[in-house]
Amino acid sequence: MSTGVPLASGKGEIFEIVLQFMPDWVQISVLVLIVLLVVGSWVFKLKRKIDRRRAARGGQAVHTAAQHGQRRGADYLGPYAPQQAAAAPQPAQQPSGADFLGAYAPQQRQGNGSA
Questions:
Q1: Which helix (H) or strand (E) holds 7?
Q2: How many Cβ atoms sit within 10 Å of the Cβ of residue 27?
Q3: Tens digit of pLDDT for each residue in 32-77?
Q4: Which of 12, 40, 66, 69 has its CA 20 to 30 A from that of 1?
Q5: How far is CA 15 from CA 20, 33, 38, 49, in A?
Q6: pTM of the model
Q7: Is residue 12 a contact partner of residue 22, using CB atoms and an 8 Å limit?
Q8: CA 5, 38, 46 angle in degrees (round to 5)?
């Protein structure tokens, strides 16, 4: 039950309409740029794949984004990291966290237990 009307997506129709109003040289330039972007992305993906295989074969780390001395990422706190005191002994650590109520804890009563 075909009506003879091609079914195109909305994006495709918009793309065709925009290209129709442009001169031929602009249409060709836009299409060439799109093809170059697609081919460039394929080349880039292939290059990364080859680099990963070479690194795995050579025994190097596969993800070498953060080199030695380049500290960054979600786990790097930078100047916000807690200070490490190597020589000073640690004092008795007070409890903390979600279960520690501190000053809001109910007071313990001292006595003989009768109220």
A1: none
A2: 14
A3: 999 999 999 999 999 999 998 988 887 766 555 555 556 666 667 7
A4: 12
A5: 9, 14, 17, 32
A6: 0.39
A7: no
A8: 135
